[in-house]
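Show me any protein, keeping tokens residue-aligned.
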Amino acid sequence: MDRWGEDAAGIRPSALEQGDNVITMFDVIGEDWWTGGGVTAKRVAAQLRAIGDRPIEVQINSGGGDMFEGLAIYNVLREHPQPITVKVMGMAASAASVITMAADTIEIGAASFLMIHNCWVVAAGNRNDFEEVAAFLAPFDQAMADVYAARSGQEAKTCARWMDDETWMSGSMAIERGFANALLAADQMKVDETAKASDREANEVRAMELTLVNSGMTRAQARARIKSIKGKPDAADDKATPGAGSTDWMASAAAVLDSLRA
């Protein structure tokens, strides 16, 4: 997510108008508690129903997120009866790379990236607990390796090795390895500075939440701590929060993180 925030945030299609058969995925995969957004299987299924029995274009720039939601979206797209073209506008990492594999045709920018790796979870306990977690994750890693292998033509064990190494593939490498079909024309992409700033701020909040969870807090405790500093102004189910829109919270957030790291 840090790499997405630095390298791919704010990349959007350059066209001023989008066709009515285009689905954009410029967000985390899964429900985003902080913004009320996120790419979910439910929302993608609703968009597909609205578009109807027509070819689909999916534009992706996402650092990933919930692997289970990514697999669900992959299956929803695979069920669509018409051809699907995915365009990787900036990055399709982690769960977003799984979604990308649902396409009949994949176009990727020369300076865009696909990233594949094993599932991640936050766990605590003794060695027996960790052995149970490892056993729990194994079939999901295998499922992702099978998805990558089916799309690329590579062997599943080769894909599993790349996942073990957390492999980043540039546009040309993705094409060479069978993960994409063609390069995306550079003039189809631009950097939207407003979107870039918004993407980065949301990414900072998510990173802080994960740091707090890794420090021993529950997710609910982490969210309460961050909300007390920043507020949660954009979430769909909240009223406006005092101080919303101010960036002063970032200094306080940095102090919290420095304290935790120390």
Q: What stands out?
A: Residues 194-251 form one domain. The first helix runs from residue 2 to 8. The chain has two domains: 2-191, 194-251.
